């Protein structure tokens, strides 16, 4: 299979571009991708920020939560997606356990995502302004992430919308301000009331990127598998399905299977043949035997 090089990109998206977008009130588009093909498609479609999310634990690996995915597994997908991205800002998610034990650990693991994975920034969940400062001091741009943070599923008691009570509302506003002060270049707001996300967005100078947080954020992000219906589960309220890949792939796989069973595949023009003028030469028993073996294999 030959892979043609990715088309020359228009201007590369950087943390500064995201800031300019916010100032110009131009929405930021963002999507997850976990491999070369989807990252390339997202990049070519003009998505501004591509995230190798730890959601891959669930949508690619079929795990129950994001918690078990490891740094090495994330790096494997980060390297694959990296090869498809030319224009978008390319961000890797730090998995659970890779920055929770100590800031030193966090900096060491984040460094791996830049050096080994080719990431241009990392994303971390939760209110960790001190860690953000350490990462920024190590020249690592940071996208912070608050609200419904899936790595906190056990503390939250499930995947629940956050910020509905007055106390939570105030806490999340403060977390957002602290993360901006600590040097985060953007902030993901997940699973919170639209009104709260709108207020945080208006208060901050860094861009907010929403998922289940209403339309007033500076940008939006979705999980690729949600977008194309590859999750095998009912979608959350905020998910809009733009395609039905499950249906498309199911039909394609079923049609292929039927064609094999009915010997309709491969057809004559999908098979290799001896050159016409060599047919006569295949008279020797040994060669004829080799040829029929070859045909049986094909
Ligand atoms: O892991 C992920 O895909 C994410 C996005 C949904 C923000 O964190």
Could you explain the architecture of this structure?
Helix 6 links the parallel strand 4 (121-125) and strand 5. The chain has twelve helices and eight strands. It has 298 residues and is α/β, with parallel strands linked by helices. It has two domains: 15-227, TIM Barrel; 250-297, no CATH class. It has an eight-stranded parallel β-barrel with strand order 1-2-3-4-5-6-7-8, surrounded by seven helices. Helices cover 41% and strands 13% of the residues. The two termini are 18 Å apart. Residues 32, 51, 53-55, 93, 188, 190, 211, 221, 223 line the site of 3-methyl-2-oxobutanoic acid.
- Enumerate the spans where pLDDT stays under 50 for 5 or more consecutive residues: 4-8, 285-298
Query: How many β-strand stretches?
Result: 8
| Tally of structural domains | 2
Number of helical stretches of at least 4 residues:
12
Q: Please outline the major beta sheet.
A: 8 strands, parallel, barrel
Report the mean per-residue pLDDT as an integer.
Answer: 93
Distance between the termini: 18 Å
CATH superfamily of the largest domain: Phosphoenolpyruvate-binding domains
Q: Name the shape in a single word.
A: elongated
Order of helices and strands: HEHEHHEHEHEHHEHEEHHH
CATH names the topology of the largest domain as: TIM Barrel
- Which percent bin holds the helix content? 40-55%
């Amino acid at each position: 299979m030959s892979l043609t090089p990715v088309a020359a990109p228009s201007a590369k998206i950087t943390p500064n571009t995201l800031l300019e977008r916010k100032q110009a009130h131009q929405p930021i588009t963002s999507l997850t991708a976990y491999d070369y093909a989807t990252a390339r498609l997202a990049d070519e479609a003009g998505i501004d920020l591509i995230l190798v999310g730890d959601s891959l634990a669930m949508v690619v690996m079929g795990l129950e939560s994001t918690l078990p995915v490891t740094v090495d597994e994330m790096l494997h997908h980060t390297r694959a997606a990296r090869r498809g991205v030319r224009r978008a800002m390319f961000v890797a998610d730090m998995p659970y356990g890779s920055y929770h034990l100590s800031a030193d650990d966090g900096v060491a693991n984040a460094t791996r995502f830049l050096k080994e994975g080719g990431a241009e920034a990392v994303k971390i969940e939760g209110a960790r302004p001190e860690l953000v400062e350490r990462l920024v001091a190590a020249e690592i741009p940071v996208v912070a992430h608050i609200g419904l943070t899936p790595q906190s599923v056990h503390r939250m008691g499930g995947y629940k919308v956050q910020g509905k009570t007055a106390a939570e509302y105030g806490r999340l506003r403060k977390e957002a301000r602290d993360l901006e002060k600590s040097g985060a270049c953007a902030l993901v707001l997940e699973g919170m009331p639209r009104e709260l996300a709108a207020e945080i967005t208006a208060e901050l100078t860094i861009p907010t990127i929403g998922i289940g947080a209403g339309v007033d954020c500076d940008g939006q992000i979705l999980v690729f598998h949600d977008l194309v219906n590859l999750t095998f589960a009912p979608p959350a309220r905020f998910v809009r399905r733009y395609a039905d890949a499950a249906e498309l792939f199911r039909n394609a796989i079923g049609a292929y299977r039927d064609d094999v069973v009915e010997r309709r595949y491969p057809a004559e023009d999908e098979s290799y043949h001896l050159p016409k003028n060599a047919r006569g030469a295949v008279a020797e028993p040994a060669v004829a035997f080799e040829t029929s073996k070859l045909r049986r294999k094909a």
